[in-house]
Amino acid sequence: AQSVTQLGSHVSVSEGALVLLRCNYSSSVPPYLFWYVQYPNQGLQLLLKYTSAATLVKGINGFEAEFKKSETSFHLTKPSAHMSDAAEYFCAVSRRGGSQGNLIFGKGTKLSVKP
Amino acid sequence: DTEVTQTPKHLVMGMTNKKSLKCEQHMGHRAMYWYKQKAKKPPELMFVYSYEKLSINESVPSRFSPECPNSSLLNLHLHALQPEDSALYLCASSQEARSYNSPLHFGNGTRLTVT
Q1: B48: closest CA among B40, B57, B39?
Q2: Torsions phi, psi of B46, nearest 5?
Q3: What whole-number distance in Å separates Cα of residue B105 and Cα of residue A106?
Q4: What would the mean pLDDT of B97-113 be, rounded to a whole number?
Q5: Do A107 and B41 touch (CB under 8 A)?
Q6: Which of B66, B73, B67, B84 is nearest to B30 (CA)?
Q7: Which of A37, A67, B29, B112 sits CB 3.0–4.6 Å from B93 for a disulfide?
Q8: Using alpha carbons only, how large is chain B's radius of gyration in Å?
Q9: What residues of B are in contact with residue A45 (Cβ under 8 Å)?
Q10: How sure is the predictor about A37, in pLDDT bands with cuts at 50, 70 and 90?
Q11: Alpha carbon separation from B105 to A40, A100, B1, B4 (Å, rounded)
C-alpha cells in the first residue's frame, strides 16, 4: 500500500533563505509522486510531479524536487524563499495507476516566511 | 482566478436541512471529484466521476449524494448532516480520471458548517 510521510508540520524560514520541505514515501510499486500547494482560503494547486521520466523535477514558482529511491524521499526545495510562498504544502502519492484523481496526501507542512 | 467555480463559498445548515453544493468547469474535462478537508488536515477523496458516471465512492455515508448532470457540472446533495461533517468541500476536475499526466484543477471550496 502506498503512503507518504511529511516530516515537520510547520517550517519557518527567513525571506531569501533555502526552503526544504521533507517527504518520504512508501510504495510497493514504482510510485507517482506529487507536491501540491494550498494558499489560505483556496483549493490546491499542483507544483510538480514525478512520473519516472527524470529524478530531478522542476515545478512552478521556482520549486523543484528530487526523487531518491535509495532514501524513499521526494523532498521539495526552493533556493530563495519569497513572502508569497507562505502556504500549506502537501506531498501525495497516487493510489493506483498513476491517476491524479486518486491521491493519498501527506498531513501537510505549513511554510511561514519571515521578513 | 480559478477555472473551477464552486458555490456557495460558505454554507451554514441545520441537521434537518437539505442543501446542495455546486461545481462548474468549462475546460472540457471529463473527470470531476469531490474532496472533503477538515481543518489542518489533508483533503480526503469522496467521489470520482468519469465521463459523467460515478466511478469511485470512497464509502461515503448516504447523507452525501453526488450528481453529475452533464460534463461541466457536479453537485453534492446534503441531507441530515451531522456537526462532524463541517469541513471545506473541494471540487476538482481533470482531463481524464486515469492519467498521471492529467493534473487536478481545484476550486476554492465551500466552507460548510453544520449546526
Answers
A1: B57
A2: -110, -60
A3: 19
A4: 85
A5: yes
A6: B73
A7: B29
A8: 13
A9: 106
A10: very high
A11: 16, 10, 12, 7
Rama region for B59: left / alpha / beta (φ>0; ψ in -120 to 50; rest): left
Residue B42: φ, ψ to 5°: -75, 160
* A19-26/A3-7 β-pairing: antiparallel
CB contact under 8 Å between A98 and B100, yes or no, is yes
pLDDT digits (tens, 9 = 90+) for B61-90: 999 999 999 999 999 999 999 999 999 999
Residue A96's pLDDT band, with cuts at 50, 70 and 90, is low
- Residues in chain A within 8 Å Cβ distance of B104: 44, 46, 100-101, 103
CA A28 to chain centre: 20
Nearest to A107 by CA among B37, B40, B92, B88: B40
Helix (H) or strand (E) holding A2: none
Interatomic CA distance for residues B77 and A13, integer angstroms: 42
The rounded distance, in Å, linking the Cα atoms of A31 and A5 is 14
List the one residue out of B27, B33, B18, B16 whose CA is nearest residue B109.
B33
CA distance B80 to B61: 11
CA distance B49 to B55: 5
Which residues of A make CB contacts under 8 Å with B?
32, 41-46, 49, 51, 90, 92, 94, 97-103, 105-108
Report the gap between the CA of A40 and the closest CA in chain B (Å): 10
Substitution target from A51, A100, A102 for chain B, most B beta carbons within 10 A = A100
